[in-house]
Every structure is written in C-alpha cells, then in structure tokens.
TrEMBL record:
It is found in: Cell membrane. The keyword Lipid metabolism does not apply. The chain crosses the membrane at residues 6-21, 28-48, 54-77. It is a multi-pass membrane protein. Keywords: Cell membrane, Membrane, Transmembrane, Transmembrane helix. One of its GO terms (cellular component) is plasma membrane. This is Transglycosylase-associated-like protein. It holds the Pfam family Transgly_assoc. Belongs to the UPF0410 family. It comes from Rheinheimera nanhaiensis E407-8. InterPro entries: Transgly_assoc (IPR007341).
C-alpha cells in the first residue's frame, strides 16, 4: 500500500510541477518519474535547510518542490 501511495504522490507532484513550470510535463508516466525523483531532491533540499515535512500533505509539498527544481534544471540543460 505504501508503494501505491508513493506512486500516486509522485504522479500528483509531477503534474503540479509541470503546471507550475508552465507546461513542462511529460505525460503520466513521465510525471511519475519526475515526481519520484523530485521527492528525493526535495527531501535532500529540505533536510539541508533544516526543514521537515510530515504526513501526506508534507510529502506532496516536498515532492512538488523537488520536482519543480528538477524541471528547472532540465530546462537549463535543454537551453544549452
């Protein structure tokens, strides 16, 4: 059950990040990957700053922030 929630949070976070970054989504499977990788990036960034997130909403916020950072970095790499 935790794995399914992990995938759902990843998909929602990827979709939110794609929407925030103005259409840089990658479809359902791509958004899941972006959200899951974003969750790791967000967790690293939050711990580096000293923030902690708890519960479903905290996980979603962490994954979304990480996914936005990931999409931003992908955008920088694609421009060059």
């Amino acid at each position: 059950m935790n794995f399914i929630m992990f995938l759902i949070i990843g998909a929602i976070a990827g979709w939110l990040a794609g929407t925030i970054m103005k259409g840089r989504g990658f479809g359902l499977l791509g958004n899941m990957v972006v959200g899951i990788v974003g969750a790791f990036i967000g967790g690293f960034l939050f711990s580096a700053v000293g923030l902690a997130s708890y519960g479903l909403v905290g996980s979603l916020i962490t994954a979304t922030v990480g996914a936005v950072v990931l999409l931003f970095l992908i955008g920088l790499i694609k421009k060059t």
